[in-house]
Design brief:
With 336 residues, the chain is mainly α. The chain has 13 helices and two strands, in the order ααββααααααααααα.
């Protein structure tokens, strides 16, 4: 299967490149574009719940709901929807540790395919709750826990793939541009989910449409993602001399991690750099400081991601209270 994937990608890149661009440039452009759309699709799927909250809660008047979707249309509907947010984020936070370790020890192509198709399946099941008239809080919580686990596969894997292909000398500029996939995914997710969120007869499509996108891209990843240059006969990206001390530190930390056996080797990427443990990673300069800074940045980002559409719907702007679709559209200006 690995040979099929490499050959398929090779034929595609040769067809696109013609006689002019060097192979490594063509492959890098393909990797940057594909991984951009991969993680964009992950964020598309994270936006759905925040968009449909207003529809699930219904219109509250005198502490009673005139419509909405049980069990979220009662007086404690906001609190119950908060449970879904917590279930997803807690699952994501726990499993991303495990996924980071797993991604270092298995084929990134298999890993991403598994995570993306899994996300698509359970997002679809989340949306199917509308068609099967499911009103169990436990069902929704369990779906969010499982979706959070599958969503945790995305970031460790795509960053590892980009790291394999992009040299450190140009990584800052490229990552700055490439990292806009989160905002693009949030914008598209808000627009796609919002288009179907107004009606109790169609809110399930707000989950199903993004699920189709990420599931379809999962098959593209399986057939067309070379996870490192060596997989297609190219040399690894050049490292700058300023990184030599860091490379020596990482290699020294890896020294005691290289004596593992070959069990499960069929899943591993034969060209991957040996992984280091979580505790040893904390010893790399800057890791702890960067993690603390990212914690507060993510705190703000996810507050807006999960709560902004519902908040816009709940207030009047210039005397007008917007429906869930318009609220989702307005919330996209944050990501723009």
């Amino acid at each position: 299967q690995a040979v099929v994937s490499t050959q398929s990608t090779g034929r595609l890149c040769k067809a696109l490149s013609g006689p002019f661009p060097p192979r490594n440039i063509v492959y890098k452009c393909w990797i940057l574009a594909l991984t951009f759309f991969i993680y964009m699709s992950y964020h598309m799927n994270r936006k759905s719940l925040g968009v449909v909250k207003a529809t699930l809660e219904g219109n509250m008047s005198d502490n009673t709901s005139t419509d909405g979707w049980a069990p979220f249309n009662g007086t404690d509907g906001t609190r119950l929807l908060g449970y879904l947010d917590t279930a997803f984020l807690l699952s994501y936070a726990i499993f991303i540790f495990a996924c980071g370790t797993i991604a270092d020890n298995v084929s990134l192509r298999y890993f991403l395919t598994f995570g993306m198709i899994g996300t698509g399946i359970f997002m679809t099941l989340m949306g199917m709750a509308q068609y099967f008239k499911i009103h169990s809080l436990a069902y929704f919580v369990i779906m969010q826990i499982i979706i959070g686990a599958f969503q945790a596969t995305g970031w460790p894997a795509v960053v590892a793939v980009i790291g394999n292909w992009v040299g450190k000398g140009s990584r800052g500029l490229i990552m700055g541009i490439w990292n806009s996939h989160t905002s693009v995914g949030n914008i598209l997710g808000g627009l796609v989910a919002g288009a179907e969120s107004n009606s109790l007869d169609t809110w399930g499509l707000s989950f199903i449409y993004p699920a189709i996108v990420i599931g379809g891209l999962g098959f593209v990843v399986f057939f067309f993602l070379p996870t490192n240059p060596q997989a297609v006969g190219l040399p690894p990206p050049n490292q700058s001399t300023a990184d030599e001390d860091e490379e020596r530190l990482i290699k020294s930390l890896q020294h005691h991690s290289d004596d593992s056996d070959d069990e499960g080797a069929i899943l591993r990427d034969p060209n991957a750099i040996p992984a280091i443990s979580f505790l040893k990673a904390l010893g790399i300069p800057g890791v702890v400081e960067f993690s603390i800074a990212l914690f507060f940045a993510k705190l703000v980002c996810y507050t807006f991601l999960f709560c902004l559409p519902d908040y816009v719907h709940s207030i009047k702007i210039n005397g007008t209270q917007y429906d869930s679709e318009k609220s989702a559209d307005i919330s996209t200006f944050y990501d723009i």
